[in-house]
Structures are given as C-alpha cells and as structure tokens.
C-alpha cells in the first residue's frame, strides 16, 4: 500500500479545523514513521467556486487514487441559493456514493473530563460509549423517484423514496455485528417497522443474519421514536446501534450532544475493503468560521480513526486519542466545551496542544 491520503478541507470552519488536524497528522507520521503522504483537493462550496460543481472530476480522480480521505466540512449560506443538484451537500453525497462508503461509524464516547459539558446529568452519561453504525449510501437519501412535481390542481408536491434491498441491509448489519463482537456484543437495530415496509424488511433481514451467523451477539430492535427517547433517558443501555441513512443522521447528532459537544465526534465512512473517508460529525458552522474558535478535536480524532481502520496503525490511533485526553486533563477547552475553572483556547492553540502532548508519548 502506498499510504496516500487526500485532504479535503471544505468550507466554513473546514480549513481551520483541518489545519490543526494536519499538524497532528504530520507529527504522528514523523514520530512513528508511518510513511503516510497526502495531497489536497477541493469539495463542496470550495469546489463550486473553483470548478462550478461540488465534486469535480479532478477531485474524483484524486479520491479514486487515495487509500483514505480526510474531510473537514462542506456547505454554507453562500451556496444555498444555487440549483439543488450542484449544492455543496450533493458533493458530499456523491463522494460517499461513488466510492461506495456504505458503512458510517459514529462513536459517541464521553471523555470523563467533559461530563459537565453534557446537557444530561453526569451520572446518566458517565462512561458512555456508543457506536452508531449508519447505512450511508442508500435509503431515502438516494432512493428514486425523488423530486418536486406539480399536481393537476397546480399545487406543488415534494416526494422521496425510502428503499433498501436485502443485500444492502445485510452488509451494514454484518459490519455492526462484527464491530459489536469486538466490544460489548450487543446490537440494537433501529427502525420504524410498525409503519414502514422498508424497515419491516430491515428488521427481518437483520434478525435472520443474527440467527444464521452471529448467535453470540445479543440483538434487540427499537422503533426510532423510542430510540430517540431512550438515548436521552438511559443512553448507557446501548452498545452498537445499527440503522438506516436518515435515522442514523438524526440519532447520531442526538448521541453527539450526550458527549458534551458535537465538536468532539469523529466518524469513519468505509467501503467493503477498508478504504475510508474520515470526517467530524459536525457541519461547516459558517457562523463561527474564520474566528479561530471552532473545536478541532473531532477532526483530530477522525485522523485517529483513519489510522485505525484504513492503515491498521492501532498504536498511532491510540497515541492521538491519549493526546486528546491529555489536553483535556490540562484543562484546555474550546468555547463549545468550556466550563468554569477551565482555560479557554482557540482552534490553533488546541491543535498545537495536541501536537505537544504527542511529544510526551
Ligand atoms: C452528516 C450531515 C450530512 C448528512 C449533510 C451535510 C448532507 O448531516 O454527515 O450527518 O445528512 O449526511
Ligand atoms: Mg447529520
């Protein structure tokens, strides 16, 4: 493997958080002689400005070549008025889909140092460690037909289609079962099988796979409305949660808040061979862009996930995660995770502190 990474900083706070993450990547690469190399490309609004489309052919060619992609965030008010099919978010959906990155892992882990930053009581979230496995290239995000049409009476009607084939359900459920076997051996599959046929098939398929191939995994099922409630009522009941594209989008934001801030949550989007795109779960936050106040830790932790899942460098991944723990121990906080008695720092200082902490290992 040539160990090539494509960095797509994107829009809004993307370039700032990525600059911090890149310093960390540089440090770990040199320190542990990982032999990684990287180049930059454009995606989203930045790509629209440069090439007129959110996922240009040049970026697609770079992405095809790379073993892993590190992404900041895309989108912003500047591009909200343009035609739907070439908005920044479409670039993100396109790269996910074209590279077949169907398995989206979103770990919601509470750093003990941040128990006070959660909106829930500390005892409800202490020790929280949930892994949300979201299907990322199917479901209502991609289903056809879709659009906005005009009815005979002249009224407009919007429509989308939620579709999942058995094979799509099986491959994501398999990822969830495999990952569960490396941790708490519990999978909760989230659906709306009481109303939607597509998720009735989802529930049936997940159940059959568990019975046939994963008898040691404890499988439960939950309707999405109940899951949303249980996540804030008693989140520690969950180990691995597997769900479709739309429910996963919503539940992962909710789970993020349990950990104090969405600014702490990394993610991995993997294909069947381990190629992956790694990005923070949060968006481009245009309202705070360019102010050096965004939290770079989700992106830095995404670097750790990349080292773990694509490059199989567990030691390097752990070193970064420990360094993040160390800077939190030092009391350093960006605005989103700030609490009394802590030291407020900006994006750059937070990134530099992680780099410095890596020196200590
Ligand atoms: C996410 C984001 C994206 C999604 C948007 C930006 C298209 O919310 O990664 O969760 O809905 O998948
Ligand atoms: Mg989302």
From TrEMBL:
Q: Which GO terms describe its cellular component?
A: cytosol
Please list the GO biological process terms of this entry. L-leucine biosynthetic process
Task: Spell out the PROSITE patterns in the cross-references.
Answer: IDH_IMDH
MF term (GO), any: magnesium ion binding
Q: Where in the cell is it found?
A: Cytoplasm
Organism domain of life: Bacteria
**Per its UniProt record, what SMART domains does this chain match?**
Iso_dh (SM01329)
Query: How cofactor binds (record note)?
Result: Binds 1 Mg(2+) or Mn(2+) ion per subunit.
Keyword flag Ribonucleoprotein: no
Q: Which UniProt keywords apply?
A: Amino-acid biosynthesis, Branched-chain amino acid biosynthesis, Cytoplasm, Leucine biosynthesis, Magnesium, Manganese, Metal-binding, NAD, Oxidoreductase
Q: Does the keyword Metal-binding apply?
A: yes
Assembly, per entry: Homodimer.
Q: What protein name applies here?
A: 3-isopropylmalate dehydrogenase
The organism is Acinetobacter larvae
- Give the gene symbol: leuB
């Amino acid at each position: 493997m040539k160990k090539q990474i494509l960095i797509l900083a994107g829009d809004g706070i993307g370039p700032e958080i990525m600059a911090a993450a890149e310093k960390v990547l540089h440090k770990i690469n040199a320190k542990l002689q990982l032999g990684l190399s990287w180049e930059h490309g454009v995606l989203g609004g930045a790509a629209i400005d440069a090439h007129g489309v959110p996922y240009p052919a040049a970026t697609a060619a770079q992405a095809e070549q790379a073993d892993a992609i590190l992404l900041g965030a895309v989108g912003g008010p500047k591009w909200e008025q343009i035609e739907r099919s070439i908005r920044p978010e479409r670039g993100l959906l396109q790269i996910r889909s074209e590279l077949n990155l169907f398995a989206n892992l979103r770990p919601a882990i509470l750093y003990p140092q941040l128990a006070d930053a959660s909106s829930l009581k500390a005892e409800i979230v202490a020790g929280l460690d949930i892994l949300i496995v979201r299907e990322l290239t199917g479901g209502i995000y991609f289903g056809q037909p879709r659009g906005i049409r005009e009815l005979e009476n002249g009224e407009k009607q919007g429509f989308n289609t939620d579709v999942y084939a058995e094979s799509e359900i099986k491959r994501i459920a398999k990822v969830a079962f495999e990952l569960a076997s490396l941790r708490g051996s519990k999978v909760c599959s989230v659906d709306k099988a009481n109303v939607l046929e597509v998720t009735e098939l989802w529930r049936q398929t997940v159940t059959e796979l568990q019975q046939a191939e994963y008898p040691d995994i404890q499988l439960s099922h939950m309707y999405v409305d109940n899951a949303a409630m249980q996540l804030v009522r008693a989140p520690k009941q969950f180990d691995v949660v597997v769900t479709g594209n739309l429910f996963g989008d919503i539940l992962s934001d909710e789970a993020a808040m349990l950990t104090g801030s969405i600014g702490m949550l990394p993610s991995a989007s993997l294909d069947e061979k381990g190629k992956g795109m790694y990005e923070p779960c949060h968006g481009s936050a245009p309202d705070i862009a360019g102010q050096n106040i965004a939290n770079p830790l989700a992106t830095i932790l995404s670097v750790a996930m990349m080292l773990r899942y694509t490059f199989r460098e567990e030691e390097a991944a752990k070193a970064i995660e420990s360094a993040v723990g160390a800077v939190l121990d030092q009391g350093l906080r960006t605005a989103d995770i700030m609490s009394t008695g802590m030291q407020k720092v900006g994006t750059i200082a937070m990134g530099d502190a992680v780099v410095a902490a890596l020196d200590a290992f």
